[in-house]
Amino acid sequence: MSAPDIIQRFFRSPLVSRFAAMRRSRWAFGIALALAFLSLGAYSMLLYWATWPVVGVWFPPMDDWSGDWVWGAITGVAMVWPVGFLAAGYLNQILLARNVSAARRRTAYAVVLWGCAALLWFMVLADQFG
User: Fold this and answer.
1) Tens of pLDDT, residues 9-62
2) Other CB atoms closer than 10 Å to residue 115's CB: what's the count?
């Protein structure tokens, strides 16, 4: 078997095609990770406000936060949250294989991203206020 045949077989393998289907999610992961570094926590605060209706029920408001942990928490959530794009992309791929409609897949994608943000904020705040 020649080298071009091996390369073609590799790119036709189910594993590679599975990752190719997640191309947009991988791009979103990279862009969100870059924004996490460049925004210095500003976009993490957008995630906090998006999850506030649920997170705010159990934890004190942001005005009550103080100490060295706050900056690390804000930047840490922003740096870990992009992994949600990979999870959402994988779920989208599974739903696509099951012929789920595009509207339901987009809704599931958004719910996974929001759920990842809420879970991260719950973990960080429970560690400090729990």
Assistant:
1) 655 655 555 566 678 888 999 999 999 989 988 889 999 999 999 999 999 988
2) 15
Query: What's 23-57 look like in SS3?
Result: HHHHHHHHHHHHHHHHCCCHHHHHHHHHHHHHHHH
DSSP classification of residue 1: -
Contact between 45 and 74 (Cβ < 8 Å): yes
Structure tokens at 44: 């993490």
Q: Tens digit of pLDDT for each residue in 51-89? A: 999 999 999 988 888 888 998 999 999 999 999 999 999
- Taking the model in full, what pTM does it have? 0.81
> What whole-number distance in Å separates Cα of residue 27 and Cα of residue 68?
32
What CA–CA distance (Å, rounded) separates 88 from 4?
A: 33
Helical segments of the chain, H only: 3-11, 14-21, 23-38, 42-58, 69-80, 83-97, 102-129
CA 79 to chain CA centroid, nearest Å: 9
